[in-house]
TrEMBL record:
It holds the Pfam family Aminotran_3. Keywords: Aminotransferase, Pyridoxal phosphate, Transferase. It comes from Rudaeicoccus suwonensis. It comes from the Bacteria. Belongs to the class-III pyridoxal-phosphate-dependent aminotransferase family. CDD domains: OAT_like. It catalyses: 4-aminobutanoate + 2-oxoglutarate = succinate semialdehyde + L-glutamate; (S)-3-amino-2-methylpropanoate + 2-oxoglutarate = 2-methyl-3-oxopropanoate + L-glutamate. This is (S)-3-amino-2-methylpropionate transaminase.
């Protein structure tokens, strides 16, 4: 008998029958409050009626037209809609299917535009699982161990991880920028460096918001040395942080922005956005693939952006995120095993530590499994596996946040 690959062996016993909004209805009749959203994907909630309808309608018109031979309306419309939310300088958009592919497209573009080989990434960053994206990922050895050689030209600099350093944020930023400056004179020549690549909030690396002062320091160094600043908004973008883009907590505008996940509520589509002058440094055929910018996914993306606007979901993410963070701080007072709570909007992480302050992955896993028993779906992350991450849908209600906190309290 054929079975699922052991690579898919899951810690969760949940098999979904159907889902709606913040809820997963399992085949065994149990009803789970979903604070995972398919790892930050189903932004408008499961099966939002407008997204379902847009996809259904598009499926009857045309499902797939490879975009170099036949252009389709949903992709043109999605480009217009993205234009309304992107920084005005990023006036050109290219499409792929997944976050990893879009990250690779961004790296290729930065290398083509500068003619330089090196990419500087930051400790704990997660950028995907294709071989090139895994080469850029430092959120844990499991993402790249065993299939070396990886892509060359990747150099890692420290991330200002204030809690783990035991410092305040300013000191952590100062340290990380100093280390970056040292890297740029010791191991990587600035004029051989194509790009800095960073997430506005480290995702799989532990739900750590990148301090605005650090992003500003990167922008300043990128400008000084002609290096492209690539912001990977795959997990933090599309309203999740309480701003449309995660980097909007700072004054920084990237050279290349990467988006995926929440852009189409679960349909696979991703994009990079850059100034047209930069995008023109690539050439047709250098990027893309058969399925990139699929018509049904693009139609779902259009509906998703409309829903985010019409239902004011960015504002909801901010309000519900504040409510969630307040509730988590109450839990932290009762449970010293929660060493740190951080996040932006509906992207909140709880870092579990032992009495000695070391990462406590065992407790994190136990709590995550206990939330499942209490019908709340959560995920773990972080290089040491000691961060519980909560990623509710942007449509989550006040009542659902309270319920999630109650179930988390029971699990703790
Ligand atoms: N970049 C970030 C920040 C991510 O969180 C992810 C996925 O979790 C990726 C890239 C890779 O995206 P995908 O899994 O769609 O390839």
């Amino acid at each position: 008998m054929t079975s699922l690959s052991p690579l898919l062996k899951q810690a969760t016993p949940v098999v979904v029958d159907h889902a709606s909004g913040s809820w997963i209805h399992a085949t065994d009749g149990r009803e789970y409050l979903d604070f995972t959203t398919g790892i930050g994907v189903t932004s408008t909630g499961h099966c939002h009626p407008r997204v379902v309808e847009a996809a259904r309608e598009q499926t009857g018109r045309i499902i797939h037209a490879q975009y170099t031979t036949v252009m389709h309306k949903p992709l043109l419309e999605l480009t217009d809609k993205l234009g309304a939310v992107l920084p005005s300088s990023l006036d050109s958009v290219f499409y792929a299917n997944s976050g990893s592919e879009a990250v690779e497209a961004a790296i290729r573009l930065a290398r083509m535009a500068t003619g330089r080989p090196n990419i500087v990434v930051f400790q704990g960053g997660f950028h995907g699982r294709t071989v090139a994206a895994a080469s850029l990922t430092t959120a844990g050895t499991r993402f790249s161990a065993g299939f070396a050689p990886l892509m060359s030209g990747v150099h890692m600099a420290p991330f200002p991880y204030a809690f783990r350093y035991g410092w305040d944020e300013d000191a952590a930023v100062e340290f990380a920028l100093r280390e970056l400056d040292y890297l740029l004179v010791s191991r990587v020549a600035p004029n051989d460096t194509a790009a800095f690549l960073i997430e506005p909030v480290l995702g799989d690396g532990g739900y750590l918001p990148t301090p605005p002062a650090f992003l500003e320091g990167l922008r300043e160094r990128a400008d000084r040395h002609g290096i492209k600043l690539i912001l990977d908004e795959v997990q933090a973008g599309c309203g999740r942080t309480g701003r449309f883009w995660g980097h909007q907590f700072s004054s920084v505008v990237p050279d290349i922005l990467v988006t995926a996940k929440g852009i189409a509520s679960g349909f696979p589509i991703s994009a990079i956005a850059a100034p047209v002058a930069l995008m023109s440094k690539g050439w047709p055929g250098s990027q893309g693939g058969t399925y990139g910018g699929n018509a049904v996914a693009a139609a779902a993306g259009c509906a998703t952006l409309d829903v985010i606007r019409d239902e004011e979901l960015v504002e909801n993410a901010r309000l519900r995120g504040d409510q969630l963070a307040d509730g988590l701080r109450v839990l932290q007072h009762k449970h010293p095993v929660i060493g740190n709570i951080r996040g932006l909007g509906l992207m909140q992480g709880l870092e579990f530590v032992t009495a000695a302050g070391d990462p406590d992955a065992a407790t994190t896993t136990a709590v995550q499994q206990a939330t499942t028993r209490h019908e709340l779906l959560t995920l773990t992350c972080g290089p040491a596996g000691n961060v519980l991450r909560l990623i509710p849908a942007l449509v989550v209600t006040e009542h659902e946040i309270d319920l999630g906190l109650e179930r988390l309290a029971l699990a703790l």
